[in-house]
């Protein structure tokens, strides 16, 4: 039939997501996208639009894949804030340990390249980070902390999550990453004010 796609669009999008994930937006060229997806330029543009549009579709695909895992992990009930941290970061460690995907995190990689993104891309990355932060705040509130402590713990846990992604890209071992996650899970409820 004329006009029918001769390839799996969802699989092509998954492969494009991995290209952006591995290289970041700034270093992802059309040549890398055609090589990574197996599509010609005309098929790539005709199906997904320009690079910025494809990037946003990949971000959405990433969020659809991984954010439900965080939501499930945070749905609890959790007996205390430490359990919230541990549950959240375990999802991150599981993704990092998956040999079928690139190291790190597409959202983290994209945040690190914020200036290279267009306004829509920056807004989408920020919205995804804010969504994770709100998810964490709700889980902490359900585990007992007041509003201020829940907000602080959510931000700290989110920062730890992002640092795990960066460390994994730098080749830190799974044991090192697990040590970071375990130490972060011990922090709630133990105030250590900075001097």
TrEMBL record:
Residues 6-66 form the HTH tetR-type domain. It comes from the Bacteria. GO terms for molecular function: DNA binding. Keywords: DNA-binding, Transcription, Transcription regulation. Residues 29-48 bind DNA. The keyword Nucleus does not apply. This is AcrR family transcriptional regulator. It comes from Kutzneria buriramensis. The lineage of its organism: Bacteria, Bacillati, Actinomycetota, Actinomycetes, Pseudonocardiales.
